[in-house]
Amino acid sequence: MSRLFISTAIFLTLLSAASASADEVKIATGHTIIKRILDPVRSAFREKTGIDIHIFFNDPVPALAELERGNADAAGASLSLEKWLELAKREGVAVKDPAAYNSYVPATEKLMIMVNSGNRIKALSKEQLKGVFTGKILNWKEVGGDDAPILVVWPSVSSGALVIFKATIMDNEPLVKDVFDVETIADTPDAIAATPEAIGIVTGTETEPGIKEIAPATERPLTFIYKGKPSPNLQKLLDFLRSEGKLYIN
């Protein structure tokens, strides 16, 4: 094989790799942003711009760390920028210049506390919820329900919703030791619907069959953050989300 042919092949390979890299936008984020924002717009955005959305699946703080290291164009989570930076500081992740960060919120989502629809409890106060999720209250009869153990459904994959709940309801106290494990917060509704003694955090826009709310829902922002001026491909994604992308976001 001639030296010229080899050199040409290497050049074309590098050119192809560079082109593929240039035609993607890298987002470090978790399940909620993927489900609510990125998956619904991905095909239409690619069809319009030729840009693929490349996702690094991460909890909020690791996602921020990827952005801080320059490995992602943006990070996404169901947290405000302020609370996100506070969480990073609390978990020991250094952010050199917090003022350099900007945010965009394309949608909001409800954070709801749910129990099985057969549970006769109608409402729980903030203090009762804190007691349940920290393990100080272990039986439904302690809050006016049946004599049955409380099963706290808790995802193994963290999310902005869990961070908000821990801060606002649990006052950042430790979670009860014995929990009903599910993989992600998206698995929580089915676990509660199938388990009469269960309670858990559900996110979305409406209540699903087999479960009911026992506390007022709170709104949370679905936030993208980025450092300084957006990269060209990120700017195209943000522009899309501000315009026709809204049609794809429930």
CATH class categorisation of the largest domain = Alpha Beta
Task: Give the overall average pLDDT.
Answer: 89
Low-confidence stretches: 1-21
Helix content: 25-40%
SSE topology sketch:
Elements: H1 3-22, E1 24-29, H2 31-49, E2 52-57, H3 60-68, E3 74-77, H4 81-90, E4 101-116, H5 126-134, E5 151-155, H6 160-168, E6 180-182, H7 188-193, E7 198-204, E8 211-213, E9 218-227, H8 232-242
Report what the structure shows.
- It is globular and about 60 Å long.
- The protein starts with a helix and ends in an 8-residue tail after the last helix.
- By secondary structure, it is of the alpha/beta class.
- It contains eight helices and nine strands.
- Strands 1, 2, 3, 4, 5, 6, 7, 8 and 9 form a nine-stranded mixed beta sheet that branches.
- The protein folds into two domains: 133 residues, Periplasmic binding protein-like II (D-Maltodextrin-Binding Protein, domain 2, 3-Layer(aba) Sandwich); 112 residues, Periplasmic binding protein-like II (D-Maltodextrin-Binding Protein, domain 2), CATH 3.40.190.10.
- The N terminus is likely disordered.
